[in-house]
Amino acid sequence: MAAVDDLKFQEFDDAANLLAANPDATTISIDEPAEIPRNQHGRLQEPGREEDDELLGTDDSDKTELLAGQKKSAPFWTFDYYQTFFDVDTYQVLDRIKGSVFPVPGKNFVRLYIRSNPDLYGPFWICATLVFTIAVSGNLSNFFIHLGKPTYHYVPEFRKVSIAATTIYAYAWLVPLALWGFLMWRNSKVMNIVSYSFLEIVCVYGYSLFIYIPTAILWIIPQKVVRWVLMMFSLGLSGSVLVMTFWPAVRDDNRRIALATVGTIVVLHALLAVGCLAYFFDAPELDFPAPIIPAHNVSTVITKSR
Amino acid sequence: MRDLKAVGKKFVHVMYPKKSSALLRDWDLWGPLVLCVSLALMLQGGSADSKDDGGPQFAEVFVIIWFGAVVITLNSKLLGGTISFFQSLCVLGYCVLPLTVAMLVCRLVLLAGSGTVSFIIRLIVVVAMFGWSTLASTAFLADSQPPNRKALVVYPIFLFYFVISWMILTFTPQ
């Protein structure tokens, strides 16, 4: 026992010296298992590297893997496995929505809000709301545009709901799938420091679509200029969330591939917005005069006939 | 006869929603089926100008109501709710009753005419019944949810009844 005590005391002495020299080092003792020093390492390191952490997430990916391993331990055919994707409270969902509408420059949406707890509630219900908002707003806007015409008979246009649903859900799930596959492939070649799981990419895309809901409601206003200004505004906001999320993931790659990836993301997002505007909202016609002008014409006709 | 009485009692419970557990304990899907079929039938015959832009078909209404109810139930269970699958379907289906009544009223009002006055009457009736449906189903379902996720569970129910109300309000006869 005395020999063991001597050994322990000596080790403590060494450790004290080492700690004095390098405060961040791990301390290993004989009878502790290997995993704990890793945890201590993570915890000691975290406060100093938080700024890097948010953009790069090197340490975070270690923690993410640990946490992911702990969280999703249920096999995928059980109900509990899917319950882990809905592990969010009301205030968390509201925070994520706020983060997608007011993007802070330099802060990564995934690191800041999702923090290795991606949820499927937000993407699914935001897409559902968007589908119905676009269909209903399009219907209302067409109704108001064609209101004065005698030959117009109102139709609910229910077929458009299924088209809207197919488009939006395909965009919100297939584009993240393609992007994830692409990032995985580049990761195997270039060893990027940042990599996102498939669910995190779905999460970002889902929450970035939220800004289109109020935009679609405001698109009822039948003015072309207003609609395009609204579109540019919402495209800017949600596009910037996407760009700030994915730029750290590709910037270490070949310059042209990085720019092409980010460019494709933005172009696809713009195509979705433009396509929805063009298909669901009839153009306010320019040849059919607005109600103010016929009165003007009538008064000029009267003055001319005098 | 006993089943009919049970269904009738549940209808009364929906019209006067008190927090009773009778609706939840003995669930049955007869009432929702009857309501769904009658709502889908009443939504037929509207502005189907042989183009595809008309109102929803029978199958579409059916699918929306049942698929919507299933999705909402799954959502509430995934968020940690303690209610069973069929109990939730039962409650959501029975709470379509006010909207079916609204559809009936709308069709009667449309027989009288389809001008602005009739539209305003229909709008008021549909909005009132939509509020009643949402409040009734929330009163039954809210207790089985974890407290900090109530809004997450109530919102899809709101969306569900909103879509059904929209289908009712935009029904225009030929």
Overview of the molecule:
- The complex is a heterodimer of chains A (306) and B (174).
- In chain A, α9 crosses α10.
- Chain A is mainly α.
- Chain A is globular, with a radius of gyration of 28 Å.
- With 174 residues, chain B is an all-alpha fold.
- Helix content of chain B is 71%, strand content 0%.
- Chain B has 8 helices and no strands.
- The longest helix of chain B has 26 residues.
- The radius of gyration of chain B is 16 Å and the shape is globular.
- The interface between A and B is medium-sized, with 25 and 30 residues.
Summarize the structure.
The complex is a heterodimer of chains A (306) and B (174). By secondary structure, chain A is an all-alpha fold.
Write the layout of secondary structure elements.
The complex is a heterodimer of chains A (306) and B (174).
Chain A (H helix, E strand, L loop, with lengths): L1 H20 L13 H11 L4 H6 L2 H14 L7 H5 L6 H12 L7 H6 L6 H25 L13 H32 L7 H11 L3 H7 L5 H27 L4 H26 L11 H14 L1
Helix pairs in contact in A: 8-9, 8-10, 8-11, 9-10, 12-13
Chain B lengths: L1 H14 L6 H4 L4 H13 L15 H21 L6 H10 L2 H16 L3 H26 L8 H20 L5
Helix pairs in contact in B: 3-4, 3-5, 3-6, 4-5, 4-8, 6-7, 6-8, 7-8
